[in-house]
Amino acid sequence: MSDDPLRTVPFFVVGNPRSGTTLLRSILCGHSQIDIPDETGFLAHLGRYQSRRLSREEIEQLVGELGKMNHEWSGLVDDIDAFCESLPESTLRHALDALYRIKTNDAARWGDKGPSYVRVLPTINEIFPDAKFIHIIRDGRDSVLSALKKWSDRYWYYDTYYLLQTWKQNVTFGRQAASWLGPERYLEIRYEKLVENTEATVRKICEFLDEPFEATMLENTAAGKRIAGPTGHHEVAAPVSVGSVANWKTKMTVFDQKLSEHLVGPLLRELGYDVPEMPAMTIGERIKKTQMAVRYLSLDLAKRLLFAAGWLKMSREKSSPESQVPVST
């Protein structure tokens, strides 16, 4: 089956939650040619539409399903016949490209930002085989602190053990893609570099995307305010700051630092982060760690069963970060 190339190459910003994906989205949206909609969440659930031509009825069904999985994508198409006729080819790839262009007001270049997508890069690659991926990584300890501050009141099961394990899995999934995507399609950046040396990092991203650097990208306040409203990420409406770098050194308890060294120390060191050698855990701390491990394993098993049964999906209707992240395999 032939497949005409898309007008532009799409790109995806991925990474563990609370690692700077929204900040990067606000910076990229400061570019005159780029727009990135709110998180979509549905790309992992469209396999049955892939690798074949779609009938008019199937395209109409696809459009309806996207609106159900993500309420912000409902009602995008008024005339399904005209929409189908406008497609270069009646494939999932071209239908989604057309919908993204509608959603971004026909921006010259569209992208997508979804932390959850870091676990399903092969699936996205099947749909968009030319797409580029920007994987942003933040020190797992700071990511955990940020997640606890933002979500612990809403999600009772969030604790340091759970979030560290999730961070390790997400970072590992993303980095595994580097080997098969190659440097032309996979770019790994650090959150710390983005906030400490913003211009150099953004220039590197623009070069990767084959887009000219624009100084307006460094003045992300306007785009940040637009994005902050619906997403609740009010911090991106402020100028870029280094205030969230290495907070773990002063705000993380000694026990949580020990837990971090035990669970993710090797990966942190591999990524170049400082990991001080901590004293051995006390008997009480080892008991606490075991209790946290048992709870984590129980929750992980429950998520596997719920996903297998179809009860959990990536969906804007289910706003928990975990409801948008497939379980590990």
Explain how this protein is built.
This protein is of the alpha/beta class and 329 residues long. It has a single domain (11-316), classed as P-loop containing nucleotide triphosphate hydrolases (Rossmann fold), CATH 3.40.50.300. The chain has 13 helices and five strands. A five-stranded parallel sheet has the order 2-3-1-4-5, sandwiched between helices. Helix 6 packs across helix 7 (160-181) and helix 7 runs parallel beside helix 12. It is globular. Mean pLDDT is 89; it is low at 314-320 and 322-329.
What's the topology here?
Blueprint: E1 11-14, H1 21-28, E2 34-35, H2 56-69, H3 80-86, H4 92-103, E3 109-113, H5 121-127, E4 132-137, H6 140-151, H7 160-181, E5 186-190, H8 191-196, H9 198-209, H10 221-231, H11 248-251, H12 254-270, H13 283-308
Parallel strand pairs: 1-3, 1-4, 2-3, 4-5
Helix pairs in contact: 1-10, 6-7, 7-12
